[in-house]
Design brief:
Shape: globular
Oligomer: single chain
Number of strands: 18
Radius of gyration: 27 Å
Largest sheet: 7 strands, mixed
Structural class: alpha/beta
Number of helices: 17
Bound molecules: nicotinamide-adenine-dinucleotide
Distance between the termini: 68 Å
Strand content: 15-25%
Helix content: 40-55%
């Protein structure tokens, strides 16, 4: 349990498959956040002083600790999030381990100081370098749906870059949160460098109020808006990883068997509770019938049940009101003319959080299913005339996290990818780029701002500092005092030299430019 937390009451860890309370964890009192922050600041000052190579080497120990405790970690993910164990291993554990491996190998190289060559002749009198410094203490506020992969893929680059972290994991996954803090202590990271605070929105709000140097938030649009407002009040920079409404475009020349398997997996993995879920499928009319038949056939074969049962494919939703929401979304679509081809119902016989994997056709943008983030096991399909219409419809969304294009023509797929409004587009795959350590992740519009993962994610964890060294330290600068008509003429000559056209103009004004550089200030 969180070593730094002061208990007032407890936070239950609930199994979504049964609704049973599995354990209780200490809830962090919002009032202790300033104290947690000052301890994190103290830990960070020693940590940042270490060479980055040393900090990155420590990540290998972290990776080894994760590998050694992978069973415990996977069990906690399954128990609290409800996902099948295979998904806990492939998604949560793989992403967490690979992030540690990637930044242990590449962190120092990615943040190496860089020379900044100056293009202008005047600028050549100086040498420039960029250096990357830690931000300080980073507050990470996380969602529940990948309770290891999401917080760890942000904490790991944050500490590699020399920061301390206070992470508020989701109140739905307190066991995973406690295990994350323990992992860093077991791996020999300094005490208070990574602190997990436990609780709901009130603890997240208290974390922002305490005044960390940056906030990385992953969660819903509604909460993201509140976070952005709270950060703006204190001028705290933020990264917002919010919801998605990802389009999957299936062109007539796609491998339909594969595309149907991808649509089914992409819509139902983690019971559809994935920011990168396939939420809107657009299929060219020539292959609509065949694709739908394949999706229905494959969906009907899926087994619904608790994530701890190795024989199941789809687990429960996280809480009962999410089941009601799925029914509402399906009913709204049906009332407006959509057709449920399979599934579409809650399964109270299995437990209060189960909803059948559902294929629904004839969905369009007038329906809630195409407007709101579904975040559940519904494969919603609209037929389109051609790829032009598919692109237009895919781009008709407030969200812009990711998308996928399915075609046997990779070139055509890439051309369409370039036209889609999304932070990432996959050609002939869905979701899995999240597991590629080098690939930046993030969107724009309602999907938020900033990036996590890869070099772009690492650069969110640093301040970029420019260092300028003058090569002529014994000379006063031409633009300093005193001013006068002479200097005005010289300045104009200098502009003509720099920007006044070709070589002839340069030669004509070279003398003035030189005179300007070496003028006598008369002060
Ligand atoms: P949520 O917005 O309900 O909660 C996210 C986190 O914010 C939780 O830790 C919660 O306790 C905290 N929180 C709530 N109110 C707060 C407040 N006022 N101040 C500070 N913190 C507060 O989201 P969720 O249900 O945990 O996650 C689901 C959402 O997350 C979906 O919309 C999903 O698309 C999105 N998500 C996005 C990504 C991404 O990378 N873009 C990844 C995973 C999930």
């Amino acid at each position: 349990m969180a070593a730094t937390a002061i208990p007032v009451d407890t936070l239950p860890s609930i199994d979504p498959a049964t609704g049973k309370i599995l354990a209780q964890f200490e809830r962090t009192l919002p009032e202790v956040l300033p104290e947690v922050l000052s301890r994190a600041r103290a830990a960070q000052s020693g940590w940042r002083a270490l060479p980055i190579e040393k900090r990155c080497a420590q990540l290998r120990v972290l990776r080894d600790c994760m590998m050694a405790s992978r069973d415990v970690l996977a069990d906690a993910v399954v128990a609290e999030s409800g996902k099948p164990r295979v998904e806990a291993l492939f998604a949560d554990l793989f992403v967490a381990l690979d992030t540690a491996q990637y930044f242990s190998k590449s962190g120092a190289k990615l943040l190496r100081s860089e020379r900044v060559p100056h293009h202008s002749p005047a600028g050549k009198a100086k040498s420039g370098r960029l250096i990357y410094e830690p931000v300080g203490v980073i507050g990470i506020i996380s969602s529940w749906n990948y309770p290891l992969a999401i917080p760890l893929s942000q904490i790991i680059p944050a500490v590699a870059a020399g920061n301390a972290v206070i992470c508020k994991t989701s109140d739905f996954t307190p066991h995973c949160g406690a295990l994350i803090e323990k992992l860093f202590l077991d791996a020999g990271f300094p005490k208070n460098l990574v602190t997990v605070v436990q609780g709901g929105g009130e603890v997240g709000q208290a974390l922002i109020d305490a005044g960390p140097d940056k906030i990385m938030f992953t969660g819903s649009v509604a909460t993201g808006r509140r976070i952005a407002e709270a950060c703006a009040q204190k001028l705290i920079p933020s990264v917002l990883e919010l919801g998605g409404k990802d389009a999957m475009i299936v062109l007539a020349d796609a491998h339909l068997e594969v595309a149907a398997s991808a649509a089914v997996w992409g819509s139902y993995t983690n019971c559809g509770q994935v920011c990168l879920s396939v939420e809107r499928l657009f299929v060219e009319q020539a292959v609509e019938e065949k694709l739908l038949a394949l999706c229905v056939e494959k969906t009907k074969k899926l087994r619904l049940g608790p994530g701890c049962d190795p024989a199941i494919d789809v687990g429960p939703l996280i809480r009962p009101h999410h089941v009601q929401r799925m029914s509402d979304l399906v009913n709204d679509a049906v009332a407006r003319g959509a057709r449920v081809l399979c599934g579409g119902k809650a399964r109270p016989d299995l437990g209060s959080n189960f909803f059948e994997p559902t294929v629904i056709a004839g969905v369009n943008s007038t329906m809630r299913l195409f407007q709101e983030e579904t975040f559940g096991p519904i494969l919603a399909v609209q037929v389109v005339k051609d790829s032009e219409e598919a692109v237009a419809r895919a781009n008709d969304s407030a969200f812009s996290l990711a998308a996928s294009v399915w075609t046997s023509d990779a070139k055509r797929g890439q051309a369409i990818a370039a036209r889609l409004r999304a932070g990432a587009v996959m050609v002939n795959d869905a979701i899995s780029y999240f597991g590629i350590a080098e690939a930046p992740h993030g969107g724009f519009g309602a999907s938020g701002w900033g990036r996590t993962h890869g070099k772009a994610g690492l650069l969110e964890m640093v301040q970029t500092k420019y260092i300028d060294v003058d090569r002529l330290p014994g000379r006063e600068k031409p633009w300093w005092y005193r001013y006068g008509a002479d200097l005005e003429r010289a300045a104009d000559g200098f502009l003509k030299f720099e920007f006044g056209g070709g070589l002839t103009a340069k030669l004509r004004n070279a003398r003035t430019a030189l005179k300007t550089m070496f003028r006598d200030h008369g002060l």
